[in-house]
Each structure stands twice: as C-alpha cells, then as structure tokens.
Amino acid sequence: MEDALSVPPLFSGNFAFFFDLDGTLAGIKPHPDDVCVPDDVLARLALLAEMNDGALALISGRSIAELERLARPYNFPLAGVHGAERRDINGQTERVTLPENVLLPLERELRQGVSTLGGVELEAKGMAFALHYRQAPQHEDAVFALAKKMVTRFPQLAMQPGKCVVELKPSGIHKGAAIEAFLKTPPFSGRKPVFVGDDLTDEHGFIVVNRLGGVSIKVGAGATQAKWRLGSVSDVHQWLERIADYQQQEQRALTNRRDDYESLSRSI
Ligand SMILES: O=P(O)(O)OC[C@H]1O[C@H](O[C@H]2O[C@H](CO)[C@@H](O)[C@H](O)[C@H]2O)[C@H](O)[C@@H](O)[C@@H]1O
C-alpha cells in the first residue's frame, strides 16, 4: 500500500525542534552501548539550535547522563527517561523519583526475573528500568509477563514498549508532557513544536505536537499519529542538513534585505 505520509517540507520561522535519539538521530544497534551520533549530525543540530535561539532539545528514553555523553561536546536541553528527567537551557535539572518502597522491591524482582531469562538485559535508569530482549527474542512473552506483573503490583508504574524492549517508568510520564514542559519556558515558549521520532514512546509526543499545530515526523515504517514521514535514520540526517542549509539561506537573505533597507534609508 502506498504511504499516505510525505517527506516533511523545509521551513523557517518561529519553531522549536525536538529530536528523539535511538532510531532517529542514531541507527538501532545490537546493544545500547554500541550507539553514537555522528559528529557532523551533532554539529548540524548545534547550528539549527543556534539559528532558532537555542530552541532545540533531545527527547529520549535514555538517561540524561547517557544523552550528555552521546551529545558531547554540545549542551542541548535534554529530556531523559521519556521525560522523567529534564535539563533546561540553563542546565537546571528536574527529576521524578520513585519511593524506595517501590524502587527496591521492583529492582530486586526484575533482577531475579531476568536472571532466569538468558540473554535478556536489565538497564537501570534510576526511576525506570528497561528490559531488553533484542539478544533473546524467544523471551519476549516472558519479558512482557514480568513487566505486567510489576505494573499490576505497583500502580505508580506504567509500561512503555519499544524496539525489542519493555520499559517500566513512573506513570504519567511521557514524551508529550516533556515537550509541553519545554514549551512553557524560554527559549521554547511561543514557538511551534517540531518533533522527529521513530518508536512507540514517540507517539505520545506526536499527539501533543499535533494538538499544538506543530510538525510531527515519524521515522521508518508503521502506523503513527505523525503527519509526516522520513524513511530512515539517514533520511533524517539528510533532512537535517537540508533544513539547516535552508534556514541559513533564509537568514542571510533577511540580513541582506535589512542591510539594503538601512543603506537606502541613509541615502534618502
Ligand atoms: O527514546 P529513544 O532515544 O529512542 O530511546 C529508546 C531506548 O533506546 C535504547 O534502546 C534501544 O536502542 C538500542 C540501541 O540501538 C537497542 O539495542 C535496543 O534494542 C532499543 O530498545 C536505550 O537502551 C533505552 O534506554 C531507551 O529507552
């Protein structure tokens, strides 16, 4: 069936940019530690941020500590763990936590459960846990059953499925809320959001961005709430290059028009 969603257009103006990381800026790898964002892509993100008064953030399921490492040497605003952590443009960080009487038994039970499922890996992110079954797809059902058991036992938790992963995160936390929180403060406030993402966790972001009249962009195949589509991570990289170039040209043209106007006013 033909894809009804097209490649997003190029635009400039009052926009705030939000990018997911895994599967969007960086290709999916066998293990989370194998991932890196190419230097030229980071440099282009920094250029786009600069041209939009710093209104560009990474919105990821990864922790802020991981995002800092992957985005080095740039200090973009960040939302980590699907929005449970948020670092603003001034470096101020907010974090949602889980009470110890949830966190301790939860981690103990997850470690115990995973120890019986060879190849399944537990990624601990402070207030959330990812159960990775990419290396052991035969355990998918058991991983989902373990996650469901934990959500039933602890109503403070929500399940977040993703690419060969099921995560347990604090309930009420999602990428849409993180984007809305950024949009309440400078330099994001008063701008239309643009969000690019590839996975189920990003659908929460698309719903909010659509409601706010922004630009929602799904990466890769699959049903989505997004209004536009880019086929792959390398298509994201190309689009990023094109929109950064386009905005640079627009800004140069604007500066030239201003200079012409000023020299004309001086000559009258
Ligand atoms: O919101 P994202 O930036 O897309 O992060 C989502 C999760 O990404 C990581 O796991 C995924 O990527 C790994 C590396 O490509 C892959 O091996 C794994 O199967 C994927 O699920 C990360 O480890 C998680 O913490 C993020 O929530």
Gist of the model:
The protein has 268 residues and is of the alpha/beta class.
List keywords for this structure.
Alpha-Beta Plaits, 7 helices, alpha/beta, four-stranded antiparallel beta sheet, 2 domains, 268 residues, Rossmann fold, 40% helix
Strands, helices and their partners?
Blueprint: E1 15-19, H1 39-51, E2 56-59, H2 64-71, E3 78-80, E4 85-87, E5 93-95, H3 100-115, E6 121-124, E7 129-132, H4 140-153, E8 157-162, E9 165-170, H5 175-183, E10 192-197, H6 200-211, E11 215-219, E12 228-230, H7 233-267
Parallel strand pairs: 1-2, 1-10, 2-3, 10-11, 11-12
Antiparallel strand pairs: 3-4, 4-5, 6-7, 7-9, 8-9
Helix pairs in contact: 1-7, 3-4, 5-6
Q: Can you tell me about this structure?
A:
The protein is an alpha/beta fold and 268 residues long. It folds into 2 domains: 15-96 and 173-259, Rossmann fold, CATH 3.40.50; 100-170, 2-Layer Sandwich (Alpha-Beta Plaits), CATH 3.30.70.1020. It is built from 7 helices and 12 strands. The protein has helices spanning 39-51, 64-71, 100-115, 140-153, 175-183, 200-211, 233-267; strands at 15-19, 56-59, 78-80, 85-87, 93-95, 121-124, 129-132, 157-162, 165-170, 192-197, 215-219, 228-230. Strands 5-4-3-2-1-10-11-12 form an 8-stranded mixed beta sheet, with helices on both faces. It has a 4-stranded antiparallel beta sheet with strand order 6-7-9-8, covered by helices on one side. A hairpin with a 4-residue loop joins β3 and β4 (85-87). α1 runs parallel beside α7 (233-267), α3 packs antiparallel against α4 (140-153) and α5 packs parallel to α6. It is elongated, with a radius of gyration of 20 Å. The protein starts with 14 loop residues before the first strand and ends with a helix. The site of the ligand O=P(O)(O)OC[C@H]1O[C@H](O[C@H]2O[C@H](CO)[C@@H](O)[C@H](O)[C@H]2O)[C@H](O)[C@@H](O)[C@@H]1O has 24 residues, from β7 and β9. Belongs to the trehalose phosphatase family. One of its GO terms (molecular function) is trehalose-phosphatase activity. Its EC number is 3.1.3.12.
